[in-house]
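Hi Y.,

Following your request, here is the sequence exactly as I used it, all 240 residues.
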Amino acid sequence: MAELTTKHPDVARKFREGHFTVQKTQRVFSSIPIDQAHEQNNACIKGDGGAVGLTDNPSALRRWKVAGPEVARVIEEFQDGNQHWRRQTADTRHHDQTPSVQASFVKDVRSLVGVIEEMGNPFEEESQDVVKLDTKEIAGPAAVETVMNAKRIGQEQFEAFTRECLLDRTKAVDDPIPRNKLKVFSTSTPRSQSKGQQQLASVKNDRELFARLYIGCQTRDGNLEEFFSSRESGMSSCTV
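Below is the corresponding structure, written out as tokens. Let me know if you'd prefer a different format.
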């Protein structure tokens, strides 16, 4: 492409004139690539089974090449019988130039401005901390280390893969690569447990503790009756 103007000036001129796209409607900024237009025309004349095996039959392929564009044109005219009237009264605006889209855009802009006025401009942040722009959440040390060393870790893993799998061939190319499990914003701050979950976790810890004490009392020939009758144990034999 860099030498297109010198080696193929005619092609370069056609590119500058915009002859590398197809305009199927009168709307602005709605051109599509030529290969996409070909695929859309092919879809018009393909049956339920598609064009499987077409290239194996020279006669069928020849008929496809000759009659395909004309069949696609006829089908398009049949599906759009009032095409001439539509071209005269068609809306040539871009699909974003409608009142609903413009109203939605204005709403998003006002929402963004409101957040910036309330929480500050994130691009003017002068703090040395790693801050999440939308919530002002400050990342913990693990997340900061991840952000600072992510590129280095990836480069080291790439070099190790190249050396072990391609150069030394000590490992197969399809060997699984272990996940890094790096700390990020979503995992840097532990989630707070509800009161019920905390009580349940405390009961489970107490159960495990008294179970170990019970086993230790048996191995040391302790008095089990005194163990279960103790008020400090706070549990009965059924919980063990």
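The radius of gyration is 36 Å.

Thanks again,
Q.
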